[in-house]
Design goal:
With 393 residues, the protein is an alpha+beta fold. The chain is 23% helix and 26% strand. It is globular. It binds FE2/S2 (inorganic) cluster (FES) and fe (ii) ion (FE2).
Length: 393
């Protein structure tokens, strides 16, 4: 679909012209996006066509379906999806969970099952989507069992994360993330396990507010009581990139570094550090945003993940997961410590919720304008440039 397929109002034309300018300059002026981009219905429709349907969207982790028969339902725009683990070969599949009979969702939530059985008329599907049985259908003139399996959605797995491409035509995901792979290979994230999830439900802000919120600049304000002392603004860095991701982070204040079990300095951790990390990784909190909806912040002993599903203009479903490296399970106080880490992140998340809610509301103010970004917010400027390119190319 091209831009000309959309009939847009003059105010949207104006916004797109502004975005074209940002794309052309690669946001060299280092300013925020125009505030109207965060709540425009027309722009949201265009985002679905330009970003969400043709792009790669992170929907979950393979370790969230560890055993044959496991399933995890995920909602993405109008699509109802399910990640499954096959009984026969242990393969991970991503399927539409819209029943091929009369479109009820065949499952909700997560669980383990021999088949996916639709609650409406009891059609049963295998974990790879094939239709196994459909009561009283064999004499129906249009019934074709082989053609009535659940539709697979194209997916790729990167570092244990499952990404979906809704229109089935995206360039492969992996080459876009090669540089990032190299930066974070020592964590071996594909081996990490999800140990805690919190679904915040539908939240009143746009997915772009969430991407913008990846800056560490706000440690000095919003996270003054939680992150600032350990991760002060003076140690923020951002790697220049024009790719589909932002790679930024923050070092640990000298006086907060503690020796680990081998006596080498590291950021304070609750669980044992993942083995094999570089000194830089041992001292830094990394923040990685793979556009448009996935955020991961690896520390040496845990990583907080955000899955941000767009629901509409100015609305997202916000889910966070906590991952830990495999050696963390050896800690005798594992459960207690995971609770401790999760509650710590929950406090930080609640601080972010407060800011994102306020920012979204106020982006509609008649006095809100594009604004200058600090050198500690290069990730926000990079995201604005990426977004502008996607929307106008
Ligand atoms: S809608 Fe699923 S069996 Fe009828
Ligand atoms: Fe934050």
């Amino acid at each position: 679909m091209t831009l000309s397929d959309f009939r847009v109002t003059a105010s949207t034309e104006q916004l797109l012209a502004e975005l074209r300018g940002i794309a052309e300059s690669n946001n060299s002026e280092q300013m925020s996006l125009p505030p109207a981009t965060y709540s425009s219905e027309e722009l949201f429709e265009l985002e679905c066509e330009k970003i969400f349907r043709p792009g790669w969207i992170m929907v979950g982790r393979v370790d969230q379906v560890p055993n044959p028969g496991d399933f995890l339902a995920v909602d993405l725009l109008d699509e109802r999806l399910v990640i499954t683990r096959d009984h026969r070969d242990g393969e991970v599949h991503v399927l539409s969970r819209v029943c091929t009979h009369r479109w009820m969702s065949v499952c909700e939530g997560s669980g383990n099952s021999r088949t996916l059985e639709c609650p409406y008329h009891a059609w049963k599907f295998e974990m790879d989507g094939a239709l196994r049985s459909a009561p009283q259908m064999k004499d129906s003139p249009s019934y074709d069992k082989a053609a009535l399996g659940l539709t697979p959605a194209r997916h790729e797995i990167w570092q244990g994360f499952v990404f979906v491409n809704l229109d089935g035509r995206a360039e492969p995901l992996a080459p876009h993330l090669v540089g990032l792979d190299e930066e974070i290979k020592e964590y071996r994230l594909s081996e990490w396990k999800t140990v805690w999830t919190r679904d915040y439900g539908e939240m009143p802000w746009d997915w772009k507010v969430m991407q913008d919120n990846g800056d560490c600049y706000h440690h000095i304000g919003l996270h003054r009581e939680t992150l600032f002392d350990t991760f002060p603004n003076s140690l923020i860095w951002t790697q220049p990139t024009e790719g589909h991701y932002v790679y930024t982070g923050c070092g640990t204040a000298q006086d907060k570094l503690v020796p680990d079990a081998e006596g080498r300095p590291a950021t304070p951790t609750t669980l044992p550090l993942a083995p094999g990390l570089t000194q830089f990784q041992r001292e830094n909190l990394l923040l990685i945003y793979v556009h448009p909806n996935y955020f991961i912040a690896p520390s040496p002993d845990n990583a907080i993940v955000a899955r941000v599903f767009p629901v509409g203009p100015g609305k997202v479903r916000f889910i966070t997961d906590l991952l830990v490296p495999p050696n963390a399970f050896d800690d005798p106080e594992f459960d207690k410590k995971v609770d401790q880490i999760a509650s710590g992140w929950d406090v930080v998340n609640v601080e972010d919720v407060r800011a994102c809610t306020s920012v979204q509301h106020n982006s509609r103010s008649q006095w809100a304008k594009r604004s200058p970004l600090s050198t500690e917010e290069l990730c926000v400027a990079q995201f604005a440039a990426w977004y502008s390119r996607q929307m106008t190319e």
